[in-house]
Design brief:
Elements lengths: L4 H6 L1 H14 L1 H15 L8 H21 L14 H28 L1 H6 L4 H29 L10 H25 L2 H14 L20 H7 L1 H13 L7 H24 L1 H7 L1
Length: 284
């Protein structure tokens, strides 16, 4: 087991050390769950992994048509000097898709192993990290498409080397939230439906299809610009755009902030899931 009362008395450092040791022991099982998730995603699908590309590309096409063509939204100038809404959109959308997939996936992963967990003990973290690895693999495919996309338009720079770091921090941030939500979802299945609604709404509260400069300072008596800017996922999207679209190096302070969000979220989520691990066996 990953936690014991003795470890709790020794403090959080001892718990973290034990957790990390357990991750190493259960790594093969985690990889098996990752492989299982990858197979399930496109089981009995004629197009298979092509859907991993069609999903983001279809959203880029629709949003580009609506906001770039119909509403004639003008994106800011890219690092190469171009004005390309599709490039601007893709550089932010890749972060959102990863964040969204981590949260929604986490709620599904635990429920899918309910019967198995009642028969055989294994840490629920292995399921979460295995599923996260599968989502991360898909994000890498999308990132490669993004790089090809940017190279085609001649908008590449050395700043792109930070994209994997931003993606990793985003995955950690989303997984931590997903772990917490998955615990509640095993007992109250309405949580998943609520999260879907919240994510759909939140998408338009993050500057992905629009720029921050069009956000009013105040709306309905609320500091709209400050609230949207303070949204952690807005920071992830903005940093990804810096390195991919604007070809600018983000500040050390900004990268440090992302690291705090990432490790803080994952730490809390991991602790909460581990804390409720045994009780979840009866609720799944």
């Amino acid at each position: 087991m990953l936690t014991m009362r003795g470890d709790e008395r020794k403090g959080p450092v001892a718990q973290v050390t034990r957790w990390l040791a357990a991750v190493r022991v259960y790594l093969p099982l985690t990889l098996n769950f990752a492989q299982r998730e990858l197979k399930v995603q496109h089981k009995r699908s004629a197009l298979g992994w092509a859907w991993s590309l069609l999903n983001p590309l279809s959203r880029i096409f629709v949003y580009s048509l609506v906001f770039g063509v119909i509403f004639r939204f003008q994106p800011p100038e890219a690092g190469s000097g171009q004005l390309n809404f599709a490039m601007y959109l893709f550089s932010g959308l890749i972060i959102w898709l990863l964040f969204e997939s981590m949260i929604r996936g986490a709620m599904h992963w635990l429920i899918s192993v309910g019967d198995l967990r009642r028969k055989v003990y294994f840490p629920l973290e292995t399921v979460a990290f295995g599923g996260a690895a599968a989502v991360g693999f898909q994000a890498l495919i999308e990132a490669m498409v993004l790089l090809v996309f940017m190279a085609f338009y001649g908008n590449l720079g050395w700043t792109i080397v930070l994209l994997p770091v931003v993606l990793l921090f985003t995955a950690m941030f989303g997984l931590g939230i997903g772990m917490v939500m998955s615990v509640f979802n095993t007992r109250y299945r309405d949580v998943e439906n609520l999260i879907v609604i919240l994510l759909s709404t939140m998408f338009f509260l993050v500057p992905i299809v629009y720029t921050e400069d069009i956000i009013p300072e105040e709306a309905y008596g609320l500091p709209a610009a400050a609230l949207i800017g303070a949204n952690p996922i807005s920071q992830f999207v903005g940093t990804a755009r810096d390195v991919v679209y604007f070809l600018e190096w983000p500040s050390l302070a900004r990268m440090s902030l992302l690291a705090v969000y990432a490790f803080g979220s994952l730490g809390v989520g991991w602790w909460f899931l581990n804390r409720r691990s045994m009780a979840l066996s009866e609720e799944m």
